Amino acid sequence: MNATTAPVRRSLRRPRPAASSAVRTARAVSARWALPGLAALLVGALLLSLGAGSVAIAPGEALAIVGAKLGLGAAEGVSPQQELVLLYVRLPRVLLGVLVGAALGVSGAVMQGLFRNPLAEPGLVGVSAGSALGAVAFIVLGGSLALSPLAGAVALPVAAFAGGLVATALVYRLATRGGRTAVATLLLAGVALAALAGAGTGLLLFVADDAQLRTITFWSLGSLGGATWTALAGAAPLLLLALVAAPRLARPLNALLLGEAEAFHLGVRVEREKRVAVGVAALGVGAAVAVSGVIGFVGLVVPHLGRLALGPDHRRLLPASALLGATLLLLADLAARTLVAPAELPIGILTALVGAPFFLWLLLRERPF
Q1: How far apart are CA 355 and CA 27, in angstroms?
Q2: Residue 298 near residue 105 (C-beta atoms within 8 A)
Q3: Are 103 and 243 in contact (CB under 8 A)?
């Protein structure tokens, strides 16, 4: 070792400053408490959504009503009007909002992990456009089927979910050749099919009458106003299935962040995991669109917020996206039904007002110049 290189080698062996260790410790502590904090935030948003509105219900009164319904005591000091509003209007709406928001957030995190791009969102595989086409086709053409009101209410979300499922299957089939799925082709096929579904939706709008146009306009901008226990019972199994299946994708998505070849060498069955990821995202978004209409930007904004708070590890990012998505949608729904009461704003307008500026910020942040 000569005199010139000795100081350099000693500096390379020098331990890191204590400040960097303190920063890492602070980040670890914040990450450890982030998920409990997000869960507490969701509980607060849930109680606020249950209580706020034309009929005010305090958190204690809401818990007493639910407890009495479950046989855990009597709801004293609660009016019959409060009980009816909570049990048959707000509670199914809030629970549906939690499931839809969580499914959209998780689906967005899965798609961003699959495409390795924070600008990706669930609509890229065409599921939202396909669901919209299926719903609009039923609204415009379903009158000729002479269905009963109950059958018609059930058939609309079924048509929307079927449209999203068909669109996703077609996109995946176009992107698969020789047993391998090209992610870039999947993206381009999704964009093309979404444009095609949009053209079909536009054609149906052209032949729709005024009543059908009002229904389509409100539905296409998203709303939880049609939430009932029946709608919740039909959508909850599909939404819960997507939420339960998503965490098993954490390890494959973490590996895919390194690239497909690297993930394969780490033991990940890449093609199978890509199919599962697309299926989970399509299931969550298709079921969500089927019961609440098209609600944009939740799947884009929520995973990125979670990534900023917790980092790219999908073991924490996926549950964080579920909690953040549910909280964001509950707050958006609360604003939608209270800002212009007794009228109601479509949720899609509010999420776009928040999501579009955030999307532009992402574009400016990610640009290479």
Answers
A1: 27
A2: yes
A3: yes
Residue 280 near residue 114 (C-beta atoms within 8 A): no
Residue 88 clears pLDDT 80, i.e. is over it: yes
Sequence length of the chain is 369
The Cα–Cα gap between 325 and 78 comes to 31
Least confident stretch, 18-32, 48-62, 205-219 = 18-32
Range among 47-56, 161-170, 240-249, 304-313 rated most confident = 240-249
* Tokens read off for 319: 């549950």
Topology at the third CATH level for domain 92-366: ABC transporter involved in vitamin B12 uptake, BtuC (1.10.3470)
CA distance 16 to 23: 12
Ramachandran assignment for 65, one of left (phi > 0), alpha (psi -120 to 50 degrees), beta (any other): alpha
Separation CA 71–CA 364 (nearest Å): 55
Query: Which range, 1-15, 16-30, 292-306, has the best average confidence (pLDDT)?
Result: 292-306
